[in-house]
């Protein structure tokens, strides 16, 4: 069997790759060793950059229909149990009015809560409908590569038969135990198997505990495992407010526990804090936190995306989002190389651009894991303290004494600090690149005016993400994002930028690469009705922004150059390696 791209794995990374490639008209086969998509909810948080990938695929409506919206995600309650005493609250996922404004200004898409077993079919259905061959029960065994392509040997797990798939390129999207990474010998840095967690997926109507303080996670300080005999349990909403994951720790040193349905009910009741609530356990599984990234993500004609090359704790919800964005970065490049529009050297930019992102998100999630122990330190618990000591320490927080004032101050500060496990808007939206697929405009590096981990930084500097602003056409609002993407380069220019349009036409013909052009301003293709484009573009009315298919600014000119055609041709030649 032959195809252009073989994708190993149909999780968020592989499913996104197959949806993108088939949308771009590139033949692809996606294989998954299991009979279906993820059978547990796993990742939920789909951040703005994640939803934007769906938007570009024309699938944002499906996401909105199936996801829990932002306004039901934000209230993170810290308590002794769901029914128990509240210790404090956070407003997460940009639901605090201050952050809500920042969130809304950054993107036309909103963060939402979309369980992975629902997210994956949205991508895979689209992929199959657009021409991808989706093969379940099919496992990659080995592969070899030569100058012209990759030959993979796969096993049909229904018949135990083996056959070969020949592809021009292979994408390893095969998750945390990636056979592709192993066979390529890609170097990994960090540790696997740090801290064990038990996930109990269950049905229970918890509306009366959650509806009036809606959040996607409720955090409980209870006697258990993790911090000197005490732990943090989590009730993770899957569907409001009837389907949940109860997360509880286990001691890795004691080995993986074997758990029964009764254990699942016990854990659920312990977290709920009310044994009379009817609970129906759906599944129980264990997982370990990893803290690993690869220091290379490609070799020859094989590219690795997603958890295969970055694994970390669920804090900040960066896992599935980063995985989909790896594919968003890679697939348009593969498309252009396969169509002969770009030289294979364009693919090297995948390494240059996504390796720093992998390292950054793993380090961010690790830092966020470190935000929880200070809660226990603030309680000043004695070593190896038991349940009673924890109860006493929590009770002591209410005491009207100077000693308790200090404890309260430390505990409240530790609790507030955990917001960095959820509200890192900058980490999500500011990913930026320096690579051969970005051409400098010669301006000096710009320092973000605020903390780049926390705050979104909108700039049209080459290598940054195109900023979102609303423009209008026929009185209807349109995001700048919707003027770009869908597998094509775009030029955005102003009212005096007609020469860029002429240049684009000639360069497009010369390179055989479609170049879409939009003018924005009075009487242009789009009206800058709010005046935001003028500010955001950081260019004059005769300037131009060149936007890549993945919404990154490839290059910009503040004003018309002497010979726009020659300038644009030079820029495109650099990016495409021609
Ligand atoms: P993923 O692991 O999803 O997919 C790998 C695919 O490869 C699967 O389809 C598998 O069958 C296939 N495969 C593997 N080997 C193969 C072979 N040899 N041949 C063929 N197919 C093969 N993240 C987050 O952002 N927020 C969260 O809240 C959580 N929560 C969470 C909870 C739990 C319990 C887990 C285990 C994980 C999370 N995550 C998470 C992490 C998140 O699930 C993860 O980052 C993404 O699933 C990664 O997507 P990938 O597509 O890279 O790998």
From TrEMBL:
Q: Name one GO molecular function term.
A: FAD binding
Q: What is its EC number?
A: 1.14.13.20
**Tree of life domain:** Bacteria
Chain ranges of the FAD-binding domain: 2-365
Pfam families for this protein = FAD_binding_3, Rng_hyd_C
Q: Which UniProt keywords apply?
A: FAD, Flavoprotein, Monooxygenase, Oxidoreductase
Respond yes or no to whether keyword Glycoprotein is given for this record. no
InterPro entries named in the record: FAD-bd, FAD/NAD-bd_sf, RIFMO-like
Question: Which EC class heads this enzyme's classification?
Answer: oxidoreductase
- Entry annotated with the keyword Oxidoreductase: yes
Give the matching PANTHER family: FAD-BINDING DOMAIN-CONTAINING PROTEIN-RELATED, TRK SYSTEM POTASSIUM UPTAKE PROTEIN
Q: What is this protein called?
A: 2,4-dichlorophenol 6-monooxygenase
* Source taxonomy: Bacteria, Bacillati, Actinomycetota, Actinomycetes, Streptosporangiales
């Amino acid at each position: 069997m032959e195809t252009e791209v073989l994708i190993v794995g149909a999780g968020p990374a592989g499913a996104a790759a197959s949806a993108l490639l088939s949308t771009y008209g590139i033949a692809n086969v996606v294989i998954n060793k299991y009979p279906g998509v993820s059978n547990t909810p796993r990742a939920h948080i789909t951040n703005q950059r994640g939803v934007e990938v769906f938007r570009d695929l024309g699938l944002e409506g499906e996401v909105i229909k199936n996801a829990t919206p932002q306004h039901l995600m934000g209230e993170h309650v810290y308590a002794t149990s769901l029914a128990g005493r509240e210790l404090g609250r956070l407003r997460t996922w940009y639901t605090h009015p201050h952050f809500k404004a920042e969130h809304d200004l950054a993107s036309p898409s909103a963060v939402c809560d979309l369980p992975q077993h629902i997210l994956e079919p949205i991508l895979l259905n689209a992929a199959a409908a657009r021409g991808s061959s989706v093969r379940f029960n099919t496992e990659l065994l080995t592969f070899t590569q030569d100058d012209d392509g990759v030959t993979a040997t796969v096993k049909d797990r229904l018949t135990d038969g083996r056959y070969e798939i020949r592809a021009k390129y292979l994408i390893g999207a095969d998750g945390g135990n990636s056979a592709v990474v192993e066979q390529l010998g890609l170097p990994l840095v960090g540790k696997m198997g740090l801290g064990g967690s038990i996930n109990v997926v269950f049905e229970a109507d918890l509306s009366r505990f959650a509806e009036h303080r809606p959040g996607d996670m409720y955090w409980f300080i209870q006697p258990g495992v993790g911090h000197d005999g005490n732990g943090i349990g989590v009730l993770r909403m899957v569907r409001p407010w009837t389907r949940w994951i109860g997360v509880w720790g286990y001691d890795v040193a004691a080995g993986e526990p074997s758990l029964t349905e009764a254990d699942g009910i016990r854990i659920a009741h312990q977290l709920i804090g009310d044994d009379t609530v009817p609970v129906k356990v759906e599944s129980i599984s264990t997982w370990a936190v990893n803290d690993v990234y690869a220091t290379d993500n490609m070799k020859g004609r094989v590219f690795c995306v997603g958890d295969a090359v970055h694994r970390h704790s669920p804090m900040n919800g960066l896992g599935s989002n980063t995985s989909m964005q790896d594919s968003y970065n890679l697939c348009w490049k593969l498309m252009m190389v396969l169509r002969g529009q770009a030289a294979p050297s364009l693919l090297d930019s995948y390494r240059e651009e996504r390796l720093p992102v992998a390292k950054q998100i793993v380090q961010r999630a690790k830092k966020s894991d470190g935000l929880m122990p200070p809660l226990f330190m603030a309680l000043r618990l004695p070593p190896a303290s038991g349940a009673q000591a924890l109860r006493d320490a929590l009770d002591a927080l209410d005491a009207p004494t100077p000693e308790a004032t200090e404890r309260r101050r430390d505990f409240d500060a530790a609790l507030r600090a955990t917001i960095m496990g959820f509200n890192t808007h900058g980490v999500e939206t500011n990913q930026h690149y320096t690579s051969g697929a970005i051409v400098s405009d010669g301006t000096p590096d710009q320092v973000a005016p605020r903390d780049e981990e926390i705050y979104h930084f909108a700039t049209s500097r080459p290598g940054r993400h195109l900023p979102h602003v609303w423009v209008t056409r026929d009185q209807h609002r349109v995001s700048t994002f919707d003027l770009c993407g869908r597998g094509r380069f775009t030029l955005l220019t102003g009212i005096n930028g007609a020469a860029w349009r002429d240049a684009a036409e000639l360069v497009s013909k010369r390179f055989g690469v479609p170049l879409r052009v939009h003018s924005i301003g009075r009487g242009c293709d789009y009206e800058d009705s709010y005046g935001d484009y003028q500010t955001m573009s950081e260019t004059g009315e005769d300037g131009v922004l060149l936007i890549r298919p993945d919404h990154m600014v490839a290059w910009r000119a503040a004003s018309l150059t002497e010979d726009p055609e020659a300038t644009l041709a030079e820029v495109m030649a650099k990016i495409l390696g021609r």
